[in-house]
Amino acid sequence: MGEREKQWERRSILKRGETDPNAVDDAVAIEEPLEIRIAGETVAVTMRSPGQDDWLTAGFLLSEGIISTLGDVSRIYHCGRPGTETFRNTIDVIPSPGLALDLPDLTPSKRGTLTSSACGVCGRQSIDDLLERCEPFEGVTPIDSRVVTQALSTIQEHQPTFEATGGVHAAAIFTDTGALVACSEDIGRHNAVDKVVGSSLYEEDWPEGALLAVSGRA
Predict the structure, then answer these.
(1) Architecture per CATH, 8-133
(2) pLDDT digits over 150-176, tens only?
(3) Which of 119, 122, 134, 183 is catalytic?
């Protein structure tokens, strides 16, 4: 579960600067499409960094309100013929016996069929649509500002793909005292969040008053 595939490869690129362009060997982040199906029906396609697709799928389904626990799912697996291009880029979700997942829930969020791995609320039709599904959160646990600062530093220590390429994001879950629970990388920030949320579902490790930290552009 949550197996991490190679997320970057070395490529020959043209580097342009103040002098004439020259060919150099560089590490480049890999990006491939992932088709997410539920009982064979396509519900989303996203561009992501290969690996941890089960976490990504579980986190996506939870974030969209399609499932509430991992117990709603019987199986998440790559489908197709092993060895083909589509095998590792198509994943199917089998609901638990007797459970019908409510796929129309994707419609109000406007994130179905084709999703965006970009930042912010990209992939949503509007902020109003998003607010229809998100109620105000009560009972917020105060977080010390030093914990927040340290969390951002800790993320950098768990980004091997970013260290190699400088081209991916990361998301991590911490306890309210700053202990790292889980961290995932992806070329898209949305996907990194879904992966780390999914990992917590699989590990059943969701601390009270948890802190979600994500990488930024600066």
Answers:
(1) Roll (3.10)
(2) 999 999 999 999 999 999 999 999 999
(3) 119
